[in-house]
């Protein structure tokens, strides 16, 4: 980190000065660029590659109060071998579950290479004490989660208490103890402005985020191309300023292959092709995988399998 950036978190005033000194987002320009990139068509040969890449980048997610060990085990089986009729179909990157289901997912995925991500820090609201948030993170990591998806304290952020948000992220990062990657969920649907999305992205990265993630999937709007564009610009700028690469994860409401491919185009054109890797880009989704598999099979055979061919997402 350059010297001035290292000093940014010395106080709330210095954080505020830095974050409010970032260039303002041109809302109309960002939305127009995201929309324009969304209309790019790609060749059929590239489409097969894009679908496989999207599967490899997928954080297959279930975050429901009604989740059961059986549901998580079934999801893990699907994560490893999404299409039982095609051994060449790639596995997803990770499954994402609530902390108490981490042991179930870890047992089911042992030796497969599919990672286990746990939400933490009083997901989705983030309303609890720091002690509880840190304890929940420690619990998930001790249970074997190799990725932690935390939420920021949006109340503190919107009240201008940037230092509180920074210190919380840093404490959760410390609780990951070098054993888990930290994804920081900004919950962009609650941040009110694109300028705030840019500020929250930088704040999370300064505090140690390995990934910045758009949304919990519990708030509308969730991921949008324009918000993701702003976050991709932020990670590109942060790499330039510090030499450290941070990943990006749009999540929530991504349900179709068409949408997934739009995000891949956005990554390629905004952050650059170095981010086109599951190490640096993920798609968080509970019900995208079946559409990717159906489109994949359509490309291979020329026809769609019936909608009930694949097990339910
Ligand atoms: O992190 C992922 C999201 O919670 C999934 O949201 P979704 O159910 O809208 O796909």
From TrEMBL:
<keyword id="KW-0704">Schiff base</keyword>
<dbReference type="Pfam" id="PF01791">
    <property type="entry name" value="DeoC"/>
</dbReference>
<dbReference type="GO" id="GO:0005737">
    <property type="term" value="C:cytoplasm"/>
</dbReference>
<comment type="similarity">
    <text>Belongs to the DeoC/FbaB aldolase family. DeoC type 2 subfamily.</text>
</comment>
<dbReference type="InterPro" id="IPR013785">
    <property type="entry name" value="Aldolase_TIM"/>
</dbReference>
<protein>
    <recommendedName>
        <fullName>Deoxyribose-phosphate aldolase</fullName>
        <ecNumber>4.1.2.4</ecNumber>
    </recommendedName>
</protein>
<keyword id="KW-0456">Lyase</keyword>
<comment type="pathway">
    <text>Carbohydrate degradation; 2-deoxy-D-ribose 1-phosphate degradation; D-glyceraldehyde 3-phosphate and acetaldehyde from 2-deoxy-alpha-D-ribose 1-phosphate: step 2/2.</text>
</comment>
<dbReference type="GO" id="GO:0016052">
    <property type="term" value="P:carbohydrate catabolic process"/>
</dbReference>
<dbReference type="GO" id="GO:0009264">
    <property type="term" value="P:deoxyribonucleotide catabolic process"/>
</dbReference>
<dbReference type="GO" id="GO:0004139">
    <property type="term" value="F:deoxyribose-phosphate aldolase activity"/>
</dbReference>
<dbReference type="InterPro" id="IPR011343">
    <property type="entry name" value="DeoC"/>
</dbReference>
<dbReference type="InterPro" id="IPR002915">
    <property type="entry name" value="DeoC/FbaB/LacD_aldolase"/>
</dbReference>
